[in-house]
Amino acid sequence: MASKDIKIGYIGLGSLGSAIFPNLIKYAQEQGLAPPSAWNRSQDKYAALNQEYPDIHTAKELGELVRRSNVIFTCLVNDAAAEDVYTKIVEILRSTPGGVQKGSIVFADQSTLKAKTALKIKEQVESAGGVYLTTTVFGQPPAARARQLVVVSSGDPKGRERVLPLLEAIGKKVIDVGDDNAKGAALKILGNSILLGAIELYAESYALSDAIGFDPAVFHELHKNLFAAPALLNYSNKISQGSFGDAGFTVKTGLKDAGHILSLGEELGHPTPLPTVERARQNLLKAVDLGAENLDWSALSIAARAEAGLEPFKEGTDNGKKKAAQ
Q1: How far apart are CA 108 and CA 86, in angstroms?
Q2: Is 14 helix (H, G, I), strand (E, B) or coil?
Q3: According to DSSP H, which parts of 128-156 are helical?
Q4: Are strands 149-155 and 171-178 parallel, antiparallel or unpaired?
Q5: What does DSSP say about strands 131-134 and 321-322: parallel, antiparallel, or unpaired?
Q6: N or C: which end of the chain has fewer CB within 10 A?
Q7: Are 255 and 285 a contacting pair, CB within 8 Å?
Q8: Cα–Cα dist 79/20, whole Å
Q9: Which residues are identified as catalytic?
Q10: For residue range 161-176, what is the model confidence (pLDDT) as tens digits?
Q11: Helix H or strand E segment including 110
């Protein structure tokens, strides 16, 4: 159970943040906590949020949220965005009259960042009196809405203890990685390397099955019975149908994460060849050239189809989205 003095803030209402934040609102209501606050650079989502949850506070300025909250989640699109937002946060903390009491405000960062970026932000936040945790998540927006995320937790031990009930409120499992933020960032990247590698293998295998005229639905049925892992089956299903949608983790974001995976070993002093991930990165780049930048990252499979001499997008789809029945 969370301490009753917790005041939740949430920064970053993208597709994932918008799916996570409502569960924190519900948790605050259940526990009798103050209504949470939210801030997003683009504020076009505020109206719908305020209509559904009239008690919450949607902040016009970042400083407004920081001053109202003492446990602040951030879910930002990339390292540059995270560094920009946290630079502003640190300036706000330092300008607080009388300063910030050390450890009184905890930041739980759900962004997928390079290990060195996480450590840089941690140092900046701590220098201003705050606590910075790496609390990345595994799962797409539907899993977030259903509280089925797998959540990673790393950083200051007292901070981890304080936010644990909140992490449990948004996911099915919390994996505690310990005190080192770099390890938390690394686990997210390592996990994504498995997912990206699996997507690449699915892309190649389904391209082969289509090239030889094998029914992809039957091939997917085999996957369902061999690999009962929801995350993998989701991608197998998308690729088998050639229908990707744009509500998940996009090709554009996948390229960012592929770069993080490929640089992780060198960053931490152990350069490691990753040929499968490199091939996946090349196919993501080709998918961008084929117009799939904003589709789910499983759309890298269109590059494998093209290489096999097939049409990139399957018949019956509209650029990777299901066509409406006529």
Answers
A1: 12
A2: coil
A3: 141-145
A4: parallel
A5: unpaired
A6: C
A7: yes
A8: 20
A9: 188
A10: 999 999 999 999 999 9
A11: none
